[in-house]
Amino acid sequence: MPGLANNRHCAAGQAAVQSAAASIRAGMDQLIIAGGVNSASTSPRSRIQVDGEWVDWFPPTHPDRPDAPNLDMSITVGWNAAVKAGISREEMDAWALRSHRNAIAAIDEGRFKEEIVPIETRMGFSRSTSIRAGTPAWKSWPRSSRCIRKLRASRSRRAMPAAPTTVLPC
After folding, report:
1. What tens digit of pLDDT does each residue of 145-164 get?
2. End-to-end CA gap in the chain
3. Where are the domains of the chain?
């Protein structure tokens, strides 16, 4: 069974599914299990108070530029996509709020009961803490000095482990 590794950081799972679909469409394969593994929250870069010397192991996805810094996806993806598509701050806020409400409703209704598997942690979380219900609180959330005016915490991705997988049949 052949395997493939790609360096797409947060988009590794999506890139794996795209490659699998292209291979099936080209007639090279008939059935592929594709997915990505991401453990950003447990990586050495995100760990605090780790013994030893710092090793910059995180390979960049592209050359670092002011309009596309290789370690700031909020600018590289979020800001550039918003500018290109002409999306306003209000439109982003409305979409983010709807997305959070839909995620909470789906979890509360048990729609993903078989797919979302709680993992015991030291902090005791059995459900995502990045999904926020109720009135949006992002107006009061602190912003980084590097944050661009259209981007804020309501739309930010958190560093969380994930390993989504799908089966693509011919």
Report:
1. 444 454 554 445 555 555 66
2. 17
3. 9-169
